[in-house]
């Protein structure tokens, strides 16, 4: 997202393209795309939610580095499987947080499943 050297719009042209655009035109197209996206360019992933769920399932205390590390590993391993694309990033993060805590403490999983009405064991 950050560039130390921002190329000129003309430098972004494909060599030998059938149509070439002026720098002003490229800038106008970029602004149109960004305004359509309401300038939200950050991808929402399970990592966006993991801190929230780790804290929620840990009585709002900061999670241990072990839980955070284990959660990150689990999230990255789910990214390799196409089967997980049917789940929302928040669902993956909640499941991963429960799995990370559940490996050490089953009472966390029991408490979470009784207090969250949307959790299905």
Automatic annotation (TrEMBL):
Residues 1-41 form the Cyclin N-terminal domain. Residues 44-105 form the Cyclin C-terminal domain. Pfam families: Cyclin_C (PF02984), Cyclin_N (PF00134). Belongs to the cyclin family. Cyclin D subfamily. It comes from the Eukaryota. This is Cyclin C-terminal domain-containing protein. GO terms for biological process: cell division. Keywords: Cell cycle, Cell division, Cyclin. PANTHER family: CYCLINS.
């Amino acid at each position: 997202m950050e560039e130390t050297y921002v190329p000129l719009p003309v430098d972004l042209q494909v060599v030998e393209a059938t149509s070439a655009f002026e720098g002003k035109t490229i800038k106008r197209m970029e602004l149109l795309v960004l305004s359509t996206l309401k300038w939200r360019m950050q991808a929402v992933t399970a990592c966006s939610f993991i801190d929230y769920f780790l804290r929620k399932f840990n009585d709002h205390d900061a999670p241990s580095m072990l839980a955070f590390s284990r959660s990150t590993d689990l999230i990255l391993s789910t990214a390799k499987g196409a089967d997980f694309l049917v789940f929302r990033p928040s669902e993956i993060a909640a499941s991963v947080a429960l799995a990370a805590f559940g490996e050490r403490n089953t009472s966390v999983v029991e408490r979470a499943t009784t207090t969250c009405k949307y959790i299905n064991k």
